[in-house]
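Handout, tutorial session.
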Amino acid sequence: MELTLLTESRCFGGLQQRYRHYSRALHCEMTFSIYLPPKALEGENVPAIYWLSGLTCTDENFMQKAGAQRGAAELGLALVASDTSPRGEHVPDDPDGSWDFGHGAGFYVDATCAPWSRNYYMHSYVVQELPDLVERSFSIDPERRGISGHSMGGHGALVAALRHPDRYRSVSAFSPIANPSACQWGQKAFGYLLGDNTSWGDWDAAALISQSTTSPSWSRHGPLLVDQGSADPFLEDQLKPNALKAAAEESKLPLELRVQVGYDHSYFFVASFLDDHLKHHAALLGSQR
């Protein structure tokens, strides 16, 4: 699987790069961004955090707005950011031309309904195909993998970790869509991608936790770290952190849900608390200064 380098810049002693490749899971060309810390450039296999962004974003938003590279360089962490959906003229988009579904808004599920099921396999892409490609191509340790994300990407990160706990040693999220089966964004996307609601719970973090007959083994993940802004305009209608909290309490899943007073849904919020998340991941991934 050939990688085409699109851009490259030195950053805090490491390298910030962007690549294009053809995805077999999505049947289209995809881009991803990667930050390689100085340790990786010296040949050491380093842990990586896979970042999933939110609605309307690309692989570049996090890398350009969050200010993550300084902390990642100090902690010896690689950062990998995927795009948020398949793209291209042949990839179906929102029939209504809206921003909350389709190109830029793939919701990190594996679609089962036509015409979406040919291209919208974002879960398989971010969980399997992209990490396998990155870990073959760069000095990244496949045994030390973390995942995080924001909004729609927070939903994707939580679902990925809950469905595949053996693939991740750490997980966190900012403002995740925690109960998409019960909000307009999720219901719209799931209706297109998955059809009737019989399988929606398989892609809903709160439902996955609630449906567990036994609490998943989360010892190596530490607490599930989630930050949410109290001034987020989508807090009650779309994000529903209380549903996540209730499910975690019921199943005894360790959750550290921090409500940050006065913060909204923007990358200003993400940047304000990102260092805490990087340190959370570094501790669990065995990365040291």
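The second record follows below. Compare its token runs with those of the first.
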Amino acid sequence: MKTKRKVGSRRDAYLELIQRFPLRPIRTEEDLDRAMEIVDELTDRDNLDEWEKDYLDVLSDLMERYETEQHPIEPVSDAVILAHLIEAKGITQAELARETKIAESTISEVLRGKRTLTRSQIGRLARCFGVGPTVFHFKN
């Protein structure tokens, strides 16, 4: 059971976090689960002090590192990404072509994996779908 105590300094809250879960590499799923509990607890609070924010930032980085190493995400082709975005927005290839001023034949070739997107096309698609340009050409 967690008890709240009046602390002499805001740094005491940080030291309490370190005692509960030291900032060390996460090596197991159990470590990850414990780290997630602390992250959930901290993100549910409204007013973290600077020490707690730093702790949360570092713990999040450790979690991301573990998940990247243990559960890598395979790259997805531009064709798959574009098809998903078109479906999610509920538009046709013709509508996308009109909105982005990209030839419908080009969009069709990208969807079939026969063509890659240019930087300009990526920019227009990103604006159209409201996503960052890094969504396209995902690389490891």
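Points raised in discussion: Residues 78-135 form a domain with the 434 Repressor (Amino-terminal Domain) fold (CATH 1.10.260.40).
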